[in-house]
Structure formats: C-alpha cells, structure tokens
C-alpha cells in the first residue's frame, strides 16, 4: 500500500512539474461568453418635419457588485486607481449633439469612459478617454490605467435608496424640460450623478 501511495505521489509530482514547464501559448482569445449590455439614450424628434433632431447614448457592460468592494481592507486599493466603469468592452458615450455635463462642454463624437475616485473615495469624476488613442494602442478596458485621459468631469455623490446589484446608468428629465437631463450611475452602494444640458432644436 505504501509503495502504491509513493508511486502515485511521484506520478502527481511529475505531472505538476511537466505542467509548470509547459510553455504558455503566445496568444489566446477570449469571447467573453454571453454578454449583458445596457444602454441609456435620449432621442430628440422633430414632430413637424418627422425626422430626428439628434440623440446621445451611453452603452456599457453590467458587472455585478461584490461585497469585497465594501471591505475596508481593500478600500485603499479600490480608490487608488481609475475604475473601468462597466465590463467586457469599453463603456462608451456617443453623442450627435453638443452637451454640457456639469458645466463642461462636450463636442459631438464618441468617448470611452471611466470612473475616477478621489484618494479618500468620497468624491467621483467621470473620465473621458479618446477612443482613437485606445484603438491605436489596442487597449482593452481592463487596461484603462494605461489609457490617457482627455479630461474629467466631477460627479455628485448621492445616497442610494438601496444597493443596486448590476451597474445601471440612467438618463432622466422632466417632460417640460427635455434639454435638461440628469445622468445617474448606480452600482452597489455607489450612486453618483451629473447634470447634462443638451443643445438641440431651435
């Protein structure tokens, strides 16, 4: 019995050594599996001409909030770097219209986005990244720390009514003032927002 056990242990050790010495492939591919994407959009429609005035939208992956993000032991690590704001492919703002977010002018175009916490984690900013530079460097959103930030826009921290399991981005407005939109990001115990003023129509 002892001899069998010794032989088995030796065999397992050999397998482990052989596995460790196996060269890793130069390239692997990842499809991400079935991906859940969210989209928040505001479309402005010209009812007289029956055509669009223009629109803007946020497209994003929806990661699940984890309790580890609330652990004080991990707090410093989480607030010391830019967050990717989403999962899988980049979170993107695409706008056909001039916007003003928290007082900052945003020209029509496409932008990759990230979320920047302050050192103490008490305030947050929306980071805008040039997708052309991301494309040129072939960066994945997982590598967001390597992406050059164009500019950041401050967001207001709010108290969530309850934790939100999956990342959710909403665009809300009053019917009588559709050009004044509120952008809100919900994720776990985090809720931040910024006002958006839209230049559209007459």
Low-confidence spans: 1-13
Question: How large is the share of residues in beta strands?
Answer: 35-45%
Relative helix content = 10-25%
The major pleated sheet works out as: 11 strands, antiparallel
Which key terms come to mind for this protein?
single chain; 202 residues; alpha+beta; eleven-stranded antiparallel beta sheet; 3 helices; 17% helix; 44% strand; globular; disordered N terminus
Describe this protein's structure.
The chain has 202 residues and is of the alpha+beta class. The protein has one domain. Helices cover 17% and strands 44% of the residues. It has three helices and eleven strands; from the N terminus they run H-E-E-H-E-E-E-E-E-H-E-E-E-E. Strands 1, 2, 3, 4, 5, 6, 7, 8, 9, 10 and 11 form an eleven-stranded antiparallel beta sheet that branches. A hairpin with a 6-residue loop joins strand 6 (109-117) and strand 7. The longest helix has 20 residues, at 2-21. The radius of gyration is 23 Å and the shape is globular. The N and C termini lie far apart (89 Å). The relative contact order is 0.16.
Brief sketch in words of this structure:
With 202 residues, the protein is an alpha+beta fold. Helix content is 17%, strand content 44%.
Write the layout of secondary structure elements.
Elements: H1 2-21, E1 37-46, E2 51-61, H2 72-78, E3 91-95, E4 99-101, E5 104-106, E6 109-117, E7 124-129, H3 131-137, E8 149-157, E9 164-174, E10 177-188, E11 190-198
Antiparallel strand pairs: 1-2, 2-3, 3-6, 4-5, 4-11, 6-7, 7-8, 8-11, 9-10, 10-11
